[in-house]
Amino acid sequence: MWVQILCGLLLYKVLKRIFYDDDDLDVETSDSNAIFSVANRLEKLYGGKAYVGLRIPDPDTGSRQNIDIVLVTKGAKFSNAKTHSEIESLREAVVVSVKNLSGIVSINRDGSWVCEGDHRHRSRQYPDPVAEAKKQASILEAYLEQRGVALPEGYFSYKVILPNPKFSSIYSSNFPPEVITFDQWILLKPEQKNMLSGWIKGAFRGGKKEMQESIHQQLNFIFSTAPIWDRLEVKGNKYVLGEFLEFKGKQEDTQALRPIKRSKVSRLVIQKTSMFGLAPSRLQVLYCPRDYRSEGTSTSSEWKEVTVRSSTEVLFQPQDSNKIRKFKLSSILSMQLSA
Question: Domain of life of the organism in this record (predicted)?
Answer without folding.
Answer: Eukaryota
